[in-house]
Amino acid sequence: MGFSTVPCNEFVEVLSSKAPAPGGGGASALVGAVGTALGNMVGSLTVGKKKYAAVEEEIYDLKAKCDKLQAELLALVERDAEVFEPLAKAYGMPRETEEEKAEKARVMEIVLKDACSVPMEIMEKCCEAIELIKEFAAKGSALAVSDAGVGAAFCKAALKGASLNVYINTKSMADKEYAAQLNAKADAMLEKYPPIADEIFESVLARLKG
User: Fold this and answer.
1) Phi, psi of 64 (to 5 degrees)
2) What pLDDT score does 131 carry?
3) In this structure, how many other beta carbons lie within 10 angstroms of the beta carbon of residue 97?
4) Is the distance from CB of 31 to CB of 165 less than 8 angstroms?
5) φ, ψ of residue 38 in degrees (nearest 5)
6) Helix (H, G, I), strand (E, B) or coil at 22
7) Can you give the CATH number for the domain in which 27 is found?
8) Is the pTM here over 0.90, yes or no?
9) What share of the chain in percent tops pLDDT 90?
10) What is the rounded distance in angstroms from the CA atom of residue 155 to the CA atom of residue 34?
């Protein structure tokens, strides 16, 4: 099933079921793609307007980056489901004998790293999106500034959501050094980017209420 191409109602229905995928990771990727698209929408409503002629070239460049990010985040909706399946199977492997225990541990280490790589990538893309939305909010059409605020809020939620999928997998890793490296990368993104998203949101809110 192509989770990024099914109708919205079908995606939500499967998400609410006991099916192992999509889950929090895939949902975070989708929310990130939607947030990025909202920033992109600000750009679409800015180009071609005389008032914003001075920034038009820059806005086109930002839009091209958003187009790429949107496609990458949608692909990660699919990829998250793909990497979760082997992990779910690995958890169900027998561990009665020493050989079975060793084999399960070996397989778990491989699939946990794969399962971690996708939410980590979702986090990175959301950070990129927040940077782009900051530019759209500052330079884009004032008529669409609310969309920049919503986009920032969505990308922050997606970033934080994806982080939980990193941490749940690093927690199970036997290679504690590798897990600590991933956790440190995730920690750094969570420290830097949610405050930027909050600044964008508060700035937009102040402009709308002021």
Assistant:
1) -65, -40
2) 98
3) 9
4) no
5) -65, -40
6) coil
7) 1.20.120.680
8) yes
9) 93
10) 8
